[in-house]
Amino acid sequence: MKIIVDAMSGDNAPVEIVKGALEARAEAGADVVLTGRGEDILRCIDSLGMGKLPQGVEISDATEVIDMDDDPATAVRVKKDASMTVGLNMLRDGHGDAMVSAGSTGALLSGATLIVKRVRGIRRAAMAPIIPNSAGGFILIDCGANTECTPEYLLQFAFMGSFYAEDALGLSAPRVALLNNGTERAKGTPLQREAYELLEKAGGEGTIKFIGNVEGKEAMLGACDVLVTDGFTGNIMLKSVEGAASLIMSELKGIYKSSIITKISALMIKKHILALRARMDSDTTGGTMLLGISKPVIKAHGSSKAPAIRGAIRQAVSAAGAATAQRLHDNMSLMTTQVRSTIASGEDGEERSENNGEPE
Amino acid sequence: MKIIVDAMSGDNAPVEIVKGALEARAEAGADVVLTGRGEDILRCIDSLGMGKLPQGVEISDATEVIDMDDDPATAVRVKKDASMTVGLNMLRDGHGDAMVSAGSTGALLSGATLIVKRVRGIRRAAMAPIIPNSAGGFILIDCGANTECTPEYLLQFAFMGSFYAEDALGLSAPRVALLNNGTERAKGTPLQREAYELLEKAGGEGTIKFIGNVEGKEAMLGACDVLVTDGFTGNIMLKSVEGAASLIMSELKGIYKSSIITKISALMIKKHILALRARMDSDTTGGTMLLGISKPVIKAHGSSKAPAIRGAIRQAVSAAGAATAQRLHDNMSLMTTQVRSTIASGEDGEERSENNGEPE
Fold it and tell me: What is d(CA A342, CA A339) in angstroms, rounded to the nearest whole number?
């Protein structure tokens, strides 16, 4: 197995990316291809105390880098020799089994859709991070790829999330829920009400296990394994949870620093608190799967350091071993609806570029 | 000053409500009127060790109780002699300066709109809880009263929230932000984009201080004093924050219980952790203002015990002393827009009942 790693994108590229990739190579047993400026990458490898390229590590030269100032919708077309573009082309052409990038989310999403393409029949790719909850974690889909959604998108997200939960969380029959402002079926906006009907029908057909509406609080307390929503609402949930966690961890720090007694107390419990902080902190965990793309693409956090890159590569190895795209293909008839929804699809920049990737 | 307290609504009514009201009476110096079954209320007072009605406490007899099975939109019309209905009528008629109820949110919202009425020109009442953040707290408006909103509603929420932040948080020129999935002005759905323009214009006119889009994480870390959103999104944020806080506090408890060492550590820090838990827990704090109603109505949490009722009564006293309704009235010309939005107002049960309260 071979994982393509965009070595030049992210706040800590290339040093931390290269470091994480070499560590993952040693640990996961998968080969890695680093895309980017060969000279820079070799200098990183040298600075890590390795004179030459370790076995199982390749470099694929790319002279450009896509950064946050580039228009996400057109970045891979404008910068054809960027580390991200080169990586996506390699993935499409079979020169790797999965790809990891800590670059611009929008550029990666548009680029993956344009170059690697969506699974045929999938309307939109979605971002699906694993959110910590009392049961370990659940998959939130979508959390930012599609600001405006139709009920059919949400139906497809449910299947994508369910298959991914089986692979990534090791669950059989993951509990799929719709994020809503109450549990009654009539809750929410027309989007939630129409999606509820489609999800209920899909649940009745037995391929996914739809358990109804779930509120944000119950999701955090373990009520579901997959939480389906539009990208706007999912983003608000994700960021609110991150903010609340960050607030509490920072208040705890303040408490521990407040006196001699609390400082001693902190020493006694330090490793547990650090583990909890790491669990709640997206920066230290792995990456977010872009689901619906025909091959596995993982977005690592922009601020990723080596451990997060290692985690994202582990995810990539696991995703490359799963047959999610094939399962989506096999179940496509259950995931498309001929009924014209009253809710039109939103068309922003990123989404237009996705349409170019595969005309609908 | 006299505060009307619905003694019969909520999970712990009437005992905890009566207890909280009597404590608030002693502490805040405001008189209280308890609405509900006189016999039950007198029995509670007796069980608290007081033989007779304390000075400054009245009972207003009401034979019925609105419960969770009643249709929120029609509850106060069907149960004319319910403790909530009687309280709202007293508030309208000037037999009290503010009202507190731990009853059904929907029934209280519809009832307040029907009986007490909105400030003339205000399109929708909104729920505005104070959410803890690193700076103390910010006001989230709306968080559940209006699932679907127009940009004009959001403009009015901004004014309502800003005036309330001045009164409740003691701020001058509170920083008003729009909850969005990014900070750029083009972010979000058409609702956010249209609201942004209205808010920017209002900010330019100087009555409110609009600081732009804010994401959920930054809001929790102190970026704004008032966070404006539709009731669906606000509800998702509120519940997600509650869920994350609940998850972390429960994980902490698990850590503290895990060994002798951690148990000793916990003892050393117990009072601080309990204080943090209380700060993050909506059940122990006060209530949520219904803003836009012509007189102050406070929704206490359904699971409120005496301390939360005391907190809600303190809020009621503060709100009764403020001139929020008058200020809304005085600034109404800045809060209405003649431009027909492309986004239609949603019309669900609760909202229809609001329209009956004041035809638009």
Answer: 9
- The total of other beta-carbon atoms located within 10 Å of residue B122's CB is 26
Amino acid, res. A258: S
- Dihedrals φ, ψ of A66, to 5°? -85, 125
Nearest to B189 among A215, A232, A262 (CB): A232
A241 and B245 within 8 Å at the Cβ level: the answer is no
Residue A172's identity, in one-letter code, is S
- Average pLDDT in the A62-71 region? 94
**Cα–Cα nearest to B160, from B193, B125, B130:** B125
8 Å CB contact of B248 and A245: yes
Encoding tokens for residue A95?
């020169």
Q: What is the pLDDT of residues B218-249, one digit of tens each?
A: 999 999 999 999 999 999 999 999 999 999 98
At A262-318, the pLDDT tens digits run 888 888 888 888 888 887 776 566 789 999 999 999 999 998 999 999 999 999 999
Q: Which two tokens stand for residue B79?
A: 């149960």
Please determine, for residue A360, whether its predicted confidence score (pLDDT) is greater than 80.
Answer: no
Average pLDDT over residues B51-63: 92
Q: Helix, strand, or coil here: B2?
A: strand
Residue B42 CB contacts under 8 Å (≥ 6 apart), including other chains:
B53, B59
Q: Which residue has the tokens 């608030």?
A: B24
CB A131 within 8 A of CB A140: yes
Give the Cα separation of A9 and A16 in Å (integer).
10
Both structure tokens of B142: 């709306």
The alpha carbon of residue B258 is apart from the nearest alpha carbon of chain A, in Å, by 10
**Per the structure block, which two tokens stand in for B332?**
């109404």
- A193 exposed, middle or buried (CB, 10 Å; 0-12, 13-18, 19+)? middle
Number of residue pairs across A and B with CB atoms under 8 Å? 174
Residues in chain A: 360
The residues that bridge with B34 in the sheet, in sequence order, are: B5, B59
Instruction: Calculate what percentage of chain A has a pLDDT beyond 90.
Output: 70
Strand, coil or helix: A227: strand
Asked whether the bond before A14 is cis by omega within 30 degrees of 0, the reply is yes
Backbone angles phi, psi at B206, to 5 degrees: 90, -10
Kindly state the tokens that stand for B330: 């005085």
Nearest-10 Cα torsion for A10, A14, A15, A16: 30
Angle at B55 between CA B51 and CA B57, to 5 degrees: 90
Q: Select the residue from B105, B230, B240, B267 to test the A interface by mutation, using most A Cβ atoms within 10 A.
A: B240
pLDDT in tens, A98-138: 999 999 999 999 999 999 999 999 999 999 999 999 888 99
Radius of gyration of chain A (CA): 21
pLDDT, tens only, B102-161: 999 999 999 999 999 999 999 999 999 999 998 889 999 999 999 999 999 999 999 999
Those residues whose C-beta lies under 8 Å from the C-beta of residue A66, and which sit 6 or more positions away, are: A9, A75, A76, A79, A82, A83, A84, A85, A103, A104, A107
Q: Tell me if A115 sits within 8 A of A85, measured CB to CB.
A: yes
User: What's chain A's average pLDDT?
Assistant: 90
Q: How far is residue B28's CA from residue B345's CA, in Å, rounded to a whole number?
A: 41
Q: What is the pTM of this model?
A: 0.90
Q: Rounded CA gap, B193 and B191, in Å?
A: 6
Instruction: Look at residues B161, B259, B246, B260 and name the one whose alpha carbon lies nearest to residue B211.
Output: B161
